[in-house]
Amino acid sequence: MWISTKLGVDRFDGKNFRHYPLNLFPDQGYNRIGVNYLRCSPDSTLWVFSEAGLLFQYDERKDEFELIYAVRDFFNNHSIILNDVMFDSPETVLLSTSKGVLKLNLQDRMASLLPGTEELSVNQVNKNDDRYYISTRDGLYISIFPKTGPMEVRFRCLEGKNVLSTYVDMENRRILIGTLDAGLYSRSLEMEDLQRLPLPITKPIRSIVSYTPDKIAVGVDLEGVFVIDKANLTIDKQYAYNEASSPPFLRIMCGGFLSTTSSICGWQLIMEESLFKTLTN
After folding, report:
1. Which of the ends of the chain has fewer CB neighbours closer than 10 A, N or C?
2. Which sign does the torsion angle of CA 100, 224, 218, 40 carry?
3. Residues in the chain with pLDDT values less than 50
């Protein structure tokens, strides 16, 4: 089990904890790393990124985290925030920042700013086929990126709302859209009938992911994890967060359940999905 905090990353093997510090580079202005987040790439490599814009990769052979890229060095601006990472291919990762989307080549560690995103404060990028779902502080952009030229926006919705997360449900031909404080929305992939779902969700929706073949898990800051039926979009279960009465694991897992990853109130946890289901049964 891997747990990230503001102080670095910890690993729990069932008996003992081990702490992995992350190099802050204070001489380069990285004396405050901010909140750390965990991700797994498609090849099961563990990654850590921070709001300060540092991206680390876990080296299993050395048993340590190696700095791969510093986003703020690209912009020469230490106010840039790194909000999310998305593995677009085995060689490239998309970095969602407060000043657009960076495409990072993992082989040569060179990055470029995707044209057309320069003025966007991007929270997350999701992809389905050739379409990119770009969650921003000013709505959701459904776009494609041609080989040359700027991105082509095919559709935009929820202008003025801070969109944090998306989930593409191909079976039911819809996209689910999570916001900062405006609830959970649903829209068909044909971009019709946008509707806010009548669910008791009022806090930031950090993640929307598959839970079982017919259910999704929606992680919400300080409200817990909502397991929702894909077909009828109703709540099947709620693992509610309560500071006073929740069991210890739910007091930790008070944010979004992200596949085998859980966002946590300034922490993040990676565990086996079977362990999560065991704890919540």
Report:
1. C
2. positive
3. 245-281
